[in-house]
What we know:
CATH class: Mainly Alpha
Structural class: alpha+beta
Number of domains: 1
Order of helices and strands: EHHEEHEHHHEHHHHHHHHHEEEEHHEEEE
Radius of gyration: 22 Å
Distance between the termini: 32 Å
Amino acid sequence: MATHARPGSFPSQSPAGRRVPELDPALVVKWQDGGGQLIDLFAEARQRLGGVAAFRLAGPRPTVLVTAPEAVQHVLALHPGRYVKRSHRARVLIGDGVVAANGEAWQRQRRLLQAQFTGRGMRRYEQRITGAARSAAERWAAYARTGEVFDVGEEMRRFALDAIWRSLTGHPLDPTAEADLAAVPAVVAALPQLPADQAAAQGVVAAELARIDALAHRVIAAARDDGPGPDGPGLLHALLDASGTRAEYTDRLIRDELVTLLLAGHETTASTLTWLHLLLDRNPEARERALAAGPEGSAERRQAVQALVHETLRFYPSAWILPRCAAEGDVLAGYRIEAGTDVVVCPYLTHRDPALWDDPERFDPGRFTTPGRRPDRPGSYFPFGMGPRACLGLQFALKESTVLLEHLLPDRTPRFLSTPAGAAYSITVRPDGPAPAVLDG
């Protein structure tokens, strides 16, 4: 696991705008020479310099790290127009999908999708999530009968992919689509090593992108020609409906939104659920407390299961870093931020700050069920981001995780044969190896 920093002091506001304290260049060079993962450099900067700190990775300007709650809120929620997204790390995969879009295009795309993930839109997908959870529970029952070894991470990915596929298309995930969609995590795994040039990056993963494109075009054509699936219209049909009145919704943009929703709708949930099973393996009493909170189907049981998810997200937030660029000069927590400065907000470190969280390295879901146990300062807990660019699928992801756990926790406890040694930090923070397990019948 990464080294976790102790909190630094958070400076008082200064109207003059002081220079952001900068990490010793020798420490940055040590990291660049193989001294650790990027999270270790971040942790070192926060430990030595506090909740707003700087270091130089490349170029003339320092990168500013933001972990203090007030500064987090300033950047993400209060002044999102001053701190904007640049090209998304996954743009080679998701194109102009809503996560990568900016400006008016982003506003239009987000407005269309927002209605699908709140209120009536979410109720439409609950049945589909439940169907995916039942399929996962049936697979686990078979593993228990046969004693077959399976990988918990792959099972969580399979469930999450089935849930979002049903919600997009109205169909359960079929073997052909599942095989083709294996290209998505393959591209995600390659992202950290891809060239910065977009055309060159596309060339490296051309075979995988071609496979994804072929599946997307096939699914779009089927939805257009055959109409809704057995579960009724899905998110894809809402995009197709938009194409009838909005010229920007070409087949290419629909493909980009489809792949964006596939990626966002399963990658983070699969990682969260895998971490949760690993954490419960180390903390079995947390599982027992959740099950003892109330009878099956009760509000008390559901709240306790949701607390397991929230505590896992505190340890391993869906978005572990949120990169931004200062579009204009600003004063942030008393420090001068020049236009063009790269700013990195890091929920991973904020969630592990002992100044905010009591005994932060202890897995304790009770923080989310007992009043007064979690910090109430805005910017202290934001696993899906915050402000206008917070993750659209927050409620969908929480519903997925809760429904699956309600199906699996009472009867099925995986016995791990080995566990990952640490974490890998890419688009998500995920276990850095397989998690083989068996289920005792």
